[in-house]
Amino acid sequence: MRLVASMALIDNGIARLRGGSPTEPATVLVLAICLGILLLTGLWTPIAGALVAIIELWATFSLPGDPWTHILLGTLCAALALLGPGAWSVDARLFGWKRIAIRDRRS
User: Fold this and answer.
1) How far apart are CA 56 and CA 45, in angstroms?
2) What number of other Cβ atoms are within 10 A of residue 17's Cβ?
3) Burial (CB count <10 Å: 0-12, 13-18, 19+), residue 59
4) Residue 27 near residue 70, CB atoms below 8 Å
5) pLDDT score recorded for residue 102
6) Predicted local distance difference test score (pLDDT) of residue 5
7) Are 45 and 5 in contact (CB under 8 A)?
């Protein structure tokens, strides 16, 4: 999931930078590409996912064209922000796995 979202962000950002889209500022595109790289490596995944979700929410309502790609990418990155980086990521190497132990109420 992290790979698909990050590759979509990077590809979309580079394609729009090359196309010279006058409706979207270049700083937002460069930020989206950088966040896509962070998601690809699994570094700061909750922060990067939340920022991408905010950017895609902004793009859904402010940019002309088909909003469904922005909705899909924003939802996917919000899910990544909630799920975390996964086993094969820089975050897992730096901070380790987080385990939640649910105890029985009787004990």
Assistant:
1) 16
2) 15
3) buried
4) no
5) 83
6) 92
7) no
CA dihedral sign of residues 53, 86, 29, 18: negative
| Tens-digit pLDDT profile for residues 5-63 | 999 999 988 988 888 667 778 888 899 999 999 999 989 999 999 999 999 999 999 98
> C-alpha 30: how far from its chain's center?
14
Cα distances (angstroms) measured from residue 52 to each of 68, 88, 94, 98:
15, 21, 22, 23
Which DSSP string corresponds to 57-104? HHHHHHS-S--HHHHHHHHHHHHHHHH---SSSHHHHHH-----PPPP
As a whole number of Å, the end-to-end CA separation of the chain is: 38
Q: What is the pTM of this model?
A: 0.82
